[in-house]
Amino acid sequence: DGGTTKNEDVTPSTGLRSPESSLSERDIKDPKSDEQASSGKKVDAAAAAENPASEINCDSEEEDSLSEALHRELKLSADAESEMKKVLVLLDFNGTLVFRDKDCSIRNLKADYSVGHTQFFIRPFARELVCHLVNDPRCKVAIYTSIMAKNMRPVLDAFDDHYQQMSSAGRFEPIRVGGSTFSTHSSLLQHCVGVFDQPFNAPDPQGKKQWDTVRDLRRIWADSRIRIGGFGPANTLMVEAEPRKVRDWRDNSVVIEEYTIGQMSSPGRGSTAVLSRLLAYLDDVLLPQMQRDGATVPQILRRSPYPGH
């Protein structure tokens, strides 16, 4: 997430707090009980525009109908979905989905949203990636960050609010997911399993800064929300933009190119290629292979490595 700073409630002298003491119920959003299924196919805005009658508001009371429509498209029975092998996708946020300008030092570009004195610039294709993942029955999404939950929650709220405002203004290109079209925003905070913050990380003994941390999946797998979902080493995938943070967990991670100020300042605020490549790998390689007998995330990453990983 671009690294924690002293302003992010990390106290080197006292070390890391335990995960059990870190988050209140207000900091964590449990997943909705009614999962929205999808076939996880790629964005097809042109097809959606040609068939506006198929648009479904995924944030309305039509969610049950949406689930039924997607089940028909996938030809899935309730038993088939219950037997589906789900993958826990732990998404990094800063540097992966957004660029964070902590001091509001960028004045020649308009930020997508601000929280306090921090500006956020959303990476191209972030909405499409989020929409696909939170509506794909083959995976569950969680946020994995080195920022404290009390500081991260307003950031995620503002991320969702930005897209809700765009949706209300009719500024969305529809997104095709399976046989249905999403013309509104699928809330990342409401649909994610949880926000796993700084106490779910470990101190980085090789870090350049005293407060640097690395990911520690043992702390994630020990959490009751993750145990209930049946997630562990065989079916967990981290998506990270800083290689050093996942160096102990290469068998469970893909590293994508970090969203930097250079990319953010380029025309169109950078290419959609990085996140669209990630979605293509998940949708066409990892998630389908997970449905095969005995396939695990580490096995798939070894035999079908993520491009550039």
Properties at a glance:
single chain, 309 residues, alpha/beta, 5-stranded parallel beta sheet, 3-stranded mixed beta sheet, 11 helices, 13 strands, 15% strand, disordered N terminus
Task: Give an account of the 3D structure.
The chain is α/β, with parallel strands linked by helices and 309 residues long. The protein has helices at 45-50, 63-74, 78-82, 126-134, 149-168, 188-191, 217-221, 224-228, 261-264, 273-290, 297-303, and strands spanning 55-56, 87-91, 98-101, 113-115, 118-122, 139-144, 175-177, 180-182, 195-196, 201-203, 213-215, 236-240, 253-255. The protein is built from eleven helices and 13 strands. It has a five-stranded parallel sheet with strand order 9-6-2-12-13. Strands 1-8-7 form a three-stranded mixed sheet. A hairpin with a 2-residue loop joins β4 and β5. The two termini are 18 Å apart. The model is unreliable at 2-64 and 75-79 (pLDDT under 50).
Largest sheet: 5 strands, parallel
Mean pLDDT: 78
Strand content: 15-25%
DSSP strand tally: 13
Structural class computed from helices and strand pairing = alpha/beta
Overall body shape: globular
User: Which residue ranges are poorly predicted, with pLDDT under 50 across at least 5 consecutive positions?
Assistant: 2-64, 75-79
What distance separates the N and C termini? Answer: 18 Å
* Assembly level: single chain
